[in-house]
Design a protein that fits this description.
Blueprint: E1 2-5, H1 7-17, E2 25-28, H2 35-43, H3 50-59, H4 65-69, H5 84-96, H6 99-109, E3 115-118, E4 125-130, E5 133-136, H7 138-142, E6 147-153, H8 163-169, E7 172-175, H9 180-188, H10 191-199, E8 203-207, H11 222-231, E9 238-242, E10 254-258, H12 270-279
Parallel strand pairs: 1-2, 1-7, 2-3, 7-8, 8-9, 9-10
Antiparallel strand pairs: 4-5, 4-6
Helix pairs in contact: 1-3, 1-12, 5-6, 8-10
Length: 281
């Protein structure tokens, strides 16, 4: 199976997928410009590593000390706020001159059960149209309401090697969960990713967020998510929603509504989500 998105949401899908999928490939958005990732991309012309790090952690061997250390953040000095995994990825890429090779090497070191691929290895900036104006940068877009479209600069970055083949060969493509515009559609905005999703014969499953993300998707129901995906060239076959989560009124594709959240309802439960996704292969 292949999974497309970014951040904590995609990591939840990967933790679910490793329970039932034989082969897993994550295709990860690389438009982040906040926090440690943002600071690193300002100083080195490489894609931001943060979302890739989270996905590597989700697929890592449970007994890996390095995997447990990827999210360690330094406290104090010039490294304050940086995650160890981010520095490791950028250091390997800078030393070896190959960003994807660096991601693959960290995957090997942590015993990842699948492969993690950036949507593109070219540095990109996320842009959004908001009320006729343009907003640039992932952080700025995430703080905007009334988004109608997102795109990337440059507008045609190539998909990273292996991305298109993984999507086309998959028997299932899981999209999300995660921030609709700044994670999911930031990955889909890469033309090669979007076109591969259109060509694949795999069943495309969209995992909805548990609640609206304010202000980015304030007031959105599941149907609004699907319409936004279509407006960006992505049609999905089925939508998975948490019972009691986003409303499904006006949804015109198959919907599976089940309890898929952790006890406090703040994040997706990998075991519950796995049961639903396994049934949809």
């Amino acid at each position: 199976m292949a999974a497309v998105g970014g951040g904590h949401g995609l990591a939840a899908s990967l933790r679910a997928a490793r329970r039932y999928a034989g082969e897993i490939t994550a295709v990860v958005a690389v438009a982040d410009d906040g926090g440690s990732s943002g600071r690193l991309r300002e100083s080195i012309a490489l894609p931001p590593p943060g979302d890739l790090r989270k996905c590597l952690d989700a697929l890592a061997a449970e007994d890996s000390l390095l995997a447990r250390s990827l999210d360690h953040r330094f406290d104090g000095g010039e490294l304050e706020g940086h995650a160890l995994g981010n520095l490791l990825l950028i250091g390997l890429a800078d030393a070896g001159g190959d960003f994807q090779a660096a991601v693959d090497e960290v995957g090997r070191l942590v015993g990842a059960v699948g492969r993690v691929l950036p949507a593109t290895t070219e540095p990109v900036v996320l842009k959004a149209v908001v009320g006729g104006d343009e907003v640039a940068g992932q952080v700025a877009v995430s703080n905007a309401a009334g988004i109608t479209r997102v795109s990337l600069t440059p507008p045609d970055p190539p998909a990273a090697p292996g991305v298109v083949a993984a999507i086309e060969a998959a028997d299932q493509v899981v999209i999300g969960p995660g921030s609709l515009y700044t994670s999911v559609l930031a990955a889909v905005a890469v033309p090669g990713v979007r076109d591969a999703l259109a060509r694949t014969r795999a069943r495309k499953v969209y995992v909805c967020n548990l609640a609206p993300q304010v202000p980015e998707t304030a007031g959105y129901g599941a149907g609004d998510h699907v319409r936004a995906l279509r407006a960006h060239g992505l049609d999905v076959d089925v939508v998975v929603c948490h019972e009691g989560g986003l409303p499904t009124d006006g949804l015109d594709v198959e919907a599976v509504v089940r309890p898929i959240a952790r006890a406090r309802g703040l994040a997706h439960d990998p075991a519950l989500l796995s049961d639903v996704l396994a049934d949809l292969v």
